[in-house]
Amino acid sequence: MFDSPLSASAYEVLGVAPDAADDDLRKAYRLRLRQTHPDTGGDAAAFVQVQRAWELVATPEARAAYDRGHGFGGTGYAPAGAAGGAEGAGGGGADGGWRPRTRSADTRPRARSFGQPGGWRRERYLTLMREWAGRGTELADPYDPALVRTAPRELRRLLADALAEETTARIVGDLGMGYTVWHDVAADPRDADLKLDHIVLGPSGLYALRSEDFGGPVRVRRGDLIGDGVTGAPVAEVVAAARAVARAARVKFSGAIVVLPDDDVVTAIDEIGRVRGLAVAIVARSALSTVLRRGLTGARDIGGNELFDIRTRLQQVVRFV
Length: 321
Hints:
There is one protein chain. With about 325 residues, the protein is α/β, with parallel strands linked by helices. Among the domains are: about 10-70, Orthogonal Bundle (Helix Hairpins), CATH 1.10.287; about 165-315, Trna Endonuclease, Chain: A, domain 1 (3-Layer(aba) Sandwich), CATH 3.40.1350. It has helices at about 10-15, 20-35, 45-55, 60-70, 120-135, 145-150, 155-175, 235-250, 290-295, 305-315; strands spanning about 110-115, 180-185, 195-200, 205-210, 220, 225, 255-260, 270-275, 280-285. A hairpin with a 2-residue loop joins strand 3 and strand 4. It is globular. The chain starts with 9 loop residues before the first helix and ends with a helix. Pfam families: DnaJ.
């Protein structure tokens, strides 16, 4: 993935300097292909990253375009305005930039939505960004890519997570009026760090979602995610948060889903089994709508009065971070 505040540039993925000669660039690409190829013991997700990086700089024309728009290793980012976020807005977001997006003029029926996706992390990012820049320093644009790239990883991670949540919010908002969504839900008032990024209720079930962007390829091992950028135990944490909300609302979740950028996973839908009794799947963003419409394996459909009852129970206990 090359449009993340955490991602490496195409040159970094290929292991060369930005001013490397074309022949050296091509040699580096072939070397990285051999190093990451799954048939020779490499990582499949990293192999995909290498191919994607090469696509961006393979020809003089492509490389020139990449260098013009991505001189510091990211993609180009256009201003996008202020965020929406009230009920029915379907969430804010950023289409490829790092700024919250204005509310869409799309008039199609959307999921009923509550909360501000990514809002807590954006506020935290802006506060810490100003502290990092130093007292008295005016930040004309705290989302300027050149500035963001120089910030500590902890700050870039906050922004990446906010973007991930906003992207998921747009996807689930498009599911339609048969779905209800809660964003940035506090799972346990005694633990400020335990939250659910999204709760999605629809005919296919009740799902706890965690939106992540680790800035690079990830894979599953022993029931959780591992990778260079992975911190903590994302699967265990979303399951713990889901169980806390389930106890408070007296509801039963159908499953937990960790949503990741398409480029960072090998399999679009990976149902990894049950964790503490809850079905769990690792899902690429592009496949999320499919999963939420059909449900996870073994999840039963919800309809009629039961759907209304679950929504009412959640509305009574949901608190936002």
